[in-house]
Amino acid sequence: MIIRRLTADDLADWRDIRLEALQRLPEAFLTTYAEERQKKDADVSKMLDQGCVLGAYSDRDLAAVLSLDPETRTALAHRAWINAVYVRPDWQGSGAAHQLLNAAIIQAKARGIVQLELYVACDNPHAIRFYERAGFVLAGRMPRAVRLADRYQDDLHYVLKIDA
Predict the structure, then answer these.
(1) What are the beta bridge partners of residue 68?
(2) How many domains does the chain have?
(3) Which of 1, 15, 67, 114 is the most buried (most CB within 10 A)?
(4) Which residues constitute the domain of residue 39?
(5) Which among 96, 79, 78 has a CA at the least distance from the CA of 87?
(6) CA-CA distance, 64 to 130, in Å (whole number)?
(7) CATH number of residue 135's parent domain
(8) DSSP 3-state of 156
(9) What is the pLDDT of residues 36-83, one digit of tens each?
């Protein structure tokens, strides 16, 4: 497995895995499939070039992705968010997510970030176990964080201090 930052050159791979994730697990992401499809290639390419989206490649196949989103305001610049995590079914259990998270920690430390944060749906036990095994600590619960078609979903806020 090769872990690397995605760029505009990876637009097709990103679009493919992102749309798959939104189609397979629509309640796991804030962006809908329809919203993602409407995004212009130029805008997505710019996001890839300017952001920090990490990809796990198995040969030429993009197996998993993770986005590291640093805070930009001075008072919050010590923090970054983990977002858009998705592992394709064939690679679940392969260690790809763990490798991506380790790469994100390395990237974050290089940028002077000391704390990673994320939200995870309270009814996603697989993801919760993964983050807790990785050392994330529950910091709180956001009731009714997401409005779904038929209900509200609570999110759990997790924190990992990476400067210890």
Answers:
(1) 82
(2) 1
(3) 67
(4) 2-161
(5) 96
(6) 15
(7) 3.40.630.30
(8) strand
(9) 999 999 999 999 998 899 999 998 899 999 999 999 899 989 999 999
